[in-house]
Amino acid sequence: MSIDTSVDRCSVNENQGKKGEETMKTQLQEKTNGKLVNALLVGFAVMMCAGSAFGATLLFSEDFEGMTVGAAIGDQTGWTEGGDGYASGTIVDGNYLRMSGGYPKGASYWDYVRRDVSGLGSNAVTLQYSVDTGNNLVAGQYYGRRVQWGIDDASGDPLVQVAMLDFDSNLTFNGEDYSGLLSGAGSTYVFDINFSTDTVQLTRNGTVIGTEALLGGDRSIADVSALLFETNGYFTSTTRTVRLDADNIRLSVIPEPASLALVGFGGLLLLRRRRR
Fold first, then answer.
1. Which of 6, 74, 105, 171 could form a disulfide with 181 if both were Cys (CB 3.0 to 4.6 A apart)?
2. Could you give the 3-state DSSP secondary structure of residue 237?
3. Within the chain, what is the greatest distance between any pair of CA atoms?
4. Of 117-126, 145-154, 162-171, the least confident
């Protein structure tokens, strides 16, 4: 007696087809997951290498665009001026801050503009301060002009300070000599501050200039109280002008590499859970 096995063959073929389809789906999912893992790993590596620019939280900014050209900076909210009164800060055409004045011969003079940034409301370990600056210093002219800017604490003592002196072609960064780096042309300065190591790295126009200790020893973000811009001079022969420009001021909290690592590993864990 013959037995009809056509139904059994159909069942077998159907099961084999389902298994093949499931295998293809599994392979496709694994391939997709593999691409996602690679993308996460690449992104994680990029974050680790470029953490200073990734995920920054802006705490303070000023581009002077909302201020009237010709207005005194001391009349603007949060800004104060002081010193000997020979240089003053005003908003000039193009909407940026200019400190300018003529210092008479025979004595030393000093003026400043200060922006209060106290109470930033963060316990971050890393802080980035960036500012565009320009000045009228010319190396080698020996007029004794000086401009400087940086970050002060509540007592008026600096954490970070850059100073330019045209009489000896010098730039100093937190008290250390960086001779030959004086420039009157417009430049972007970026200070990357690490409060866990009490150090600050200075970058100008994308080039790292150096890393120095924070002034004043053990510091935290709570010590950041004011942004300071100063001009001064000592002229023995004739009156000379001193000018310092500033624009596009930014204070940002930068994620630490450990925080970035948590982001990357979190993505991998979610992917693993999805695969299950």
1. 171
2. coil
3. 128
4. 162-171
Nearest to 218 by CA among 156, 172, 173, 153: 153
pTM value is 0.72
Can you tell me the distance from the alpha carbon of 146 to that of 144, in angstroms, rounded to the nearest whole number?
A: 7
d(CA 216, CA 144): 27
Token pair 């600056």 in the structure block, residue: 133
What is the Cα 186 distance to its own chain's centre?
17
The answer to whether 218 and 227 have CB atoms below 8 angstroms apart is no
229-248: average pLDDT: 84
Q: For residue 252, what are its two tokens?
A: 């940002």
- Domains in the chain: boundaries: 6-51+259-275, 58-254
Q: How many CB atoms lie within 10 A of CB 81?
A: 18
**pLDDT, tens digit, 9 for 90 and up, residues 133-143:** 988 876 666 66
Helices (H), the chain: 6-49, 257-275
**Does residue 12 register a pLDDT over 80?**
no
Nearest C-alpha neighbor of 148 from the set 63, 67, 233, 60: 233
Closest C-alpha to 142, from 231, 230, 234: 234
Specify the CATH architecture of the domain 58-254.
Sandwich (2.60)
| Cβ pair 170, 182 in contact under 8 A | yes
